[in-house]
């Protein structure tokens, strides 16, 4: 398995329970013990990077240094073409300190309306996820995953988290369905999501 062996502890550098559940399900076939940085009392470092990669590395290395274990960090966000790539690396910050993604989705919709982006071709977006693995004594590595789609309004579906209820994934030029990530069951989203694609790249390279 390379840098990580079966039975090892893997710290996931997040305080977000939904992300822990997603990664926990992905990691389960590899028999790793996954714990969150939050459960270990590790603070969340300030995300000062200018890219998804830089922020993921910053979080992974902080968790590895604080825990002494291999640490995996995710930095992800929604990139909207009509908004010049916003919110991008600031996706979580658009939800404010209270993590109010309903307000963040409303803000995106207001900006799309202001840009006269009302049809699917003008509301193209993509989710991006970068995983960074930091293992004490080894170079930090990153793995990127993306999924294309478009945004709908109003948001639909109680599942997922963040901007999932307004995002319809696409496969090439065709929508995989008319359902948003928020309307999909977790196992369906896992087949398509940006985080799953980044994790697959990580698993192929590290968890052989």
Strand order in the sheet with the most strands:
2-1-3-4-5-6-7
> How far is the first residue's CA from the last residue's CA?
5 Å
CATH topology: Maf protein
Return the structural class: alpha/beta
Layout of helices and strands, plus pairs?
Blueprint: E1 9-12, H1 17-27, E2 33-36, H2 52-67, E3 70-80, H3 101-114, E4 124-134, E5 141-151, E6 167-171, E7 174-175, H4 186-192, H5 194-206
Parallel strand pairs: 1-2, 1-3
Antiparallel strand pairs: 3-4, 4-5, 5-6, 6-7
Description:
This protein has 208 residues and is of the alpha/beta class. It is globular, with a radius of gyration of 17 Å. It contains five helices and seven strands. Helix 1 links the parallel strand 1 and strand 2 (33-36).
Tags for this entry?
208 residues; alpha/beta; Maf protein; seven-stranded mixed sheet; 7 strands; 29% helix
Short précis:
This protein has five helices and seven strands. The protein has 208 residues and is an alpha/beta fold.
């Amino acid at each position: 398995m390379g840098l990580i062996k079966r039975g090892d502890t893997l710290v996931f550098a997040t305080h977000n329970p939904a992300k822990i559940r997603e990664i926990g399900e992905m990691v389960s076939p590899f028999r790793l013990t996954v714990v969150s940085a939050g459960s270990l009392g590790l603070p969340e470092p300030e995300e000062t990077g200018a890219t998804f990669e830089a922020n993921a590395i910053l979080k992974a290395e902080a968790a590895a240094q604080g825990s002494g274990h291999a640490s995996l960090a995710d930095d992800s966000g929604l990139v909207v073409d009509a908004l010049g790539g916003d919110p991008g690396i600031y996706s979580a910050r658009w939800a404010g300190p209270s993590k109010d993604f309903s307000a963040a989705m409303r803000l995106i919709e207001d900006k799309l309306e202001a840009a006269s982006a009302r049809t699917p071709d003008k509301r193209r977006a993509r989710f991006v996820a970068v995983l960074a693995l930091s293992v004490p004594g080894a170079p930090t590595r990153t793995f990127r995953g993306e999924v294309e789609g478009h945004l709908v309004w109003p948001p639909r579906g109680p599942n997922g988290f963040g901007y999932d209820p307004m995002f319809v994934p696409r496969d090439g030029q065709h929508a995989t369905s008319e359902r948003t990530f928020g309307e999909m069951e977790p196992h369906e989203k896992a087949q398509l999501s940006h985080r799953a694609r980044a994790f697959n790249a990580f698993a192929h390279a590290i968890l052989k």
